Amino acid sequence: SAQGGPVSICYICGAELGPGKEFQLNVNPASRLGEKEPFFPFLTVYPPAPRARPVDSTGLVATCVLCYHDLLAQWLQHEARSTHHTVSAWSRQYQVETFVCFFCQQEKKRCLGLKSVRVARLPLFLYTLRASHSLLVDDGQQLIIGACVECGTLVCAGQGLNRQGPMSWSSPVAAATKVSSSCPSFHSAPPSLASAASSVSWALSVCH
User: Fold this and answer.
1) What's the pTM?
2) By three-state DSSP, how is residue 74 classified?
3) Could you give the dihedral angle defined by the CA atoms of residues 119, 120, 122 and 124, in that order, rounded to the nearest 10 degrees?
4) What is the pLDDT of residue 87?
5) Residues 6+ apart with CB under 8 A from 185
């Protein structure tokens, strides 16, 4: 669950977390529910991101919203498979070293390489075919999308231009096209996602 407090660092990806942006995961099962509540023992040996706090005395680690929901989704997948395959919750494997950028669909290192962007809940994003291991969270008001540093920077640059006012309505796309030349992976993206990246500037409402 989300917790308020001072700025901290995501244990997995190293993102800086502001007050109210910290989500906590259990390393060991909660005593009241045993192994029925999600817990992630692999985190006891997984190296924390730079500047992240180690596992605390209560067995909790701080994560960002994307890593938190990604691990919960993987836990549920393991739970669904456990009815057919007996695998101890203590020995489950989780994929957290890398992720796939929503925009360029390239696999990237997650630690210090994951950038979250917030966009409006438009069909452009809601119904785009997502690549496996891409990250997206829908909070009912906005979408939080996992992007690589290059694509995330491009998206934020377009959003910044959009804030300049009505006279800049035509400039974000041109700027995005110009900036994308410095992001080689964009050129290999499918047309639908490439156009999504160039037009995302007017869809963004908040970018972190």
Assistant:
1) 0.74
2) helix
3) -20
4) 75
5) 101, 104, 106, 148, 150, 151
